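Running co-folding for DP6.
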Amino acid sequence: MSSTIYQATCSAPVNIAVIKYWGKRDTSLILPTNDSLSVTLDQDHLRSVTTARADASFDGQDRLWLNGEEEVIKPDGRLRRCIDEMKKLRQAKEAKDASLPKLSEWAVRVCSENNFPTAAGLASSASGFAALIASLAALYELQPEVSTSELSRIARQGSGSACRSLFGGYVAWQGGEQASGQDSLAVEVAPQSHWPDLQALICVVSDAKKGTPSTAGMQRTVQTSPLLQHRIKDVVPQRMKDISAAIQNKDFDTFANITMADSNNFHACCLDTAPPIFYMNDVSRAIVQLTEELNRASEAEGKGKLAAYTYDAGPNAVLYAPKANMPTILQTIRHYFPNADFDDTFDLLGKGANASHRGAQ
Ligand code: DP6
């Protein structure tokens, strides 16, 4: 009997999209209606850490614990699909090398923790599924034969936005055209080291659980919003090109303009949904106005834009800005949202987080 322990631990950070993914053309394979692009945040602040272990002695069932609570792995669910796809890749490796232990035939036990409160209203599915795929890839020793983009194709089937968290830095999810989803995967646009000066500030406006989960909300938008069709056809393709170029050129003004426009367009599509979906609240809108004011003042002085806001499926603001601007931004936010409200309604997380390190490691 071998006493080798087959276990791997990996972490993956949260990513925040600047060109939003909103809508699926295939809900089962998780194929999006448009390309998207995100920045992966610093691992120190918001990340999921996952340990995966395989053992011949485990009984037949795969099991998974999330923040200490066991999750049911439903037979036709996303977790099942991800684990099965990873086992298939391991099986292919074992088929080529008969000396390898048959880990693909053993059950796995997975344990995942977020280093941020799940209740904080911040997307945890992206980092969670990315860490799951990364830890299984390490357990099954799939890389480098299987590329990170290939792994992202599987993470995508856990949660669309998860495919982007496998990479650090600036990441595009190419929606693809094939019905099989073979060409729907994440690619690196630029590593974090290319533009390390960009930072992210997350303003937790509310830590309440969101009203309409993204998975349900986006399909309601697909079914009812004419504006979404315009977004898919006429808006996103050009923005993907322009923001990729802005990142290559480290052109913050263009990056900021596109980021804010895309957040607003996404929330307009939510409003165009029947019945409408409201994610932003009065505090979110006040932060939009404040950022617009700061940018106007900065541009009046002949300087560029100070910051860019973006909002996901909830009221919390993420502000992207060059490092040098962060003190002014923080000071202004503290001024307009004084300490009295700070703890309850306006908490700052990830103060000046570096806009990424590596994806999963
Ligand atoms: C607004 O990836 O959570 O954050 O694929 O159904 O799991 P599913 O949805 P999810 O949606 C994220 C939506 C978003 C925009 C984005 O991250 O691009």
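Result summary
The two ends are 30 Å apart (CA to CA).
The CA atoms of residues 11 and 49 lie 4 Å apart.
Job closed.
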